[in-house]
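Format notes (please read before filing issues)

Several people have asked whether sequences and structure tokens are stored in separate files. They are not. Every record keeps both together, in the order shown below: the sequence lines, then the token lines. Line labels are part of the format and must not be stripped during preprocessing.
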Amino acid sequence: MSAAERFSVKRAPPTSVPQVVLEAKSVDWGVAVDAYLFEAGQIGGHYSARAYFDCSGQIGDGETVLTPPVRSIRRARGFTLLQSESGRDYYVLVSSIDADDIDAGNEADA
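Then the structure lines:
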């Protein structure tokens, strides 16, 4: 076995998309969403999460991503639209492992 074969990165097998992600995807966000973030954890101004429906096609459903710094700009049906500081990227926070995000999800949607 060659070194390239031993260290090649293999993609995880296809994952079924969680129902809650499909629900978030059905919301009209008014912008092109770069990815839907599931089981997200906040790290400073970033989120680490399992991503679904990555618009670039480079990230497979269920793969882990780290967002650039983001801010919350809108809530709808219990989900949160995030925008990168650059203003070019949008993500939907579908579910979070952080208590603060869960509490925010219980507040009325704007």
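For reference, the curators noted about this record: Residues 18-105 form one domain. The beta strands are 35-43, 46-52, 63-66, 70-76, 79-84, 90-93.
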